[in-house]
Amino acid sequence: MGWFSWFYYKEDEKLNPQKDRDDSHRKQPHLTAPSNPQKDRDDSHRKQPHLTAPSNPQKDRDDSHRKQPHLTSPSNPQKDRDDSHRKQPHLTAPSNPQKDRDDSHRKQPHLTAPSNISRLSSGADRVKTRSTNSSKREFLGIKDKPDVQIAAHTFTFRELAAATNNFRPESFIGEGEFGRVYKGQLPSGQVVAVKQLDRNGLQGNREFLAEVLMHSLLHHPNLVNLIGYCVDGDQRLLVYEFMPLGSLEDHLHDLPPDKEPLDWNTRMTIASGAAKGLEHLHDKANPPVIYRNFKSSNILLKENFFPKLSDFGLAKLGPTGDKSHVSTRVMGTYGYCAPEYAMTGQLTVKSDVYSFGVVFLELITGRKAFDSTKPQGEQNLVAWATV
Description:
The protein is α+β, with helices and mostly antiparallel strands. Helices cover 42% and strands 12% of the residues. It has 15 helices and twelve strands. The strands form four sheets. Strands 1-5-6-4-3-2 form a six-stranded mixed β-sheet, with helices on both faces. The chain has a two-stranded antiparallel sheet with strand order 7-10. A two-stranded antiparallel ribbon has the order 8-9. Strand 8 and strand 9 form a beta hairpin. Helix 12 (264-284) runs antiparallel to helix 14 (349-365). The longest helix is centred in the last third of the chain and has 21 residues, at 264-284. The protein is globular and about 55 Å long. The relative contact order is 0.06.
């Protein structure tokens, strides 16, 4: 550069100071201005991002509660009920008498009723009993007699098994249409006869029920006394007074050599007593009862050959009003059954009278009502006697 140019450059610096500052600003490095603490803090607050202060849990909860909108948390019924119970004042619900009584019953201690009240049956029990008795009466045709009560004692099968030594052979005393008969002794010391229903036999639950109810209706010295019965599972048993001399059949037919036949007076005494029992059924009972099973094996003998009629499983109530007969299926034992009943199924008290005549012939002749060992024309006793 010549001296003229250098002089001109210096003069230009003196005349243009703004340009010098701009050039200086472009050429010189950036220098930090002297620190101003107050201004730095203000600028720092405006420029720097927001920083979270150290956590203060209690303060955070308070601030959050003041600043944030209320948000409903997911429903928790049990927690809501607990919180509601703690926070809300106690409110009395409108009265509900039925609910109050139920709650009171659950909350109060159990009180024991007096013993005489606890023994009383409920109304439901009485209704059920009346319904059961009603169905039984209707089944037997005695629904118009509301005063009928079953007075016989109820036994368990275990009690009767103990009374008969578990039905051992040495306790066995006979067998009939109903089933086997065993001798037993009750805890009271009373000797009894226990009849066990044969489930495969000729008689079933219907005859068992008829037997129990008929004995509840009928009471006479010449009728066997029913002491009790047992309905335990599929077991059906009847308990009678014990008749030590067995049945009339035992003293009339197939006698062992060492056994004496009945004398004439004894035979007539037995016939008279059996007729009295039959008379009670026909004339004294109301309504009349048709025995339908009168035969020598059903006439049991007490001491001194006192006779009693037994086995009322086939008994039917006789006709009432202007009815002359009862229509029913033919039941009974061949040889004792009245021929008009066997042919038509029409049952009357005369059917029993016919059977009584057959037994009377047995007493007189000593022959069986029907004996298959006899010749063809002599097997039926009535046919043989009327020849």
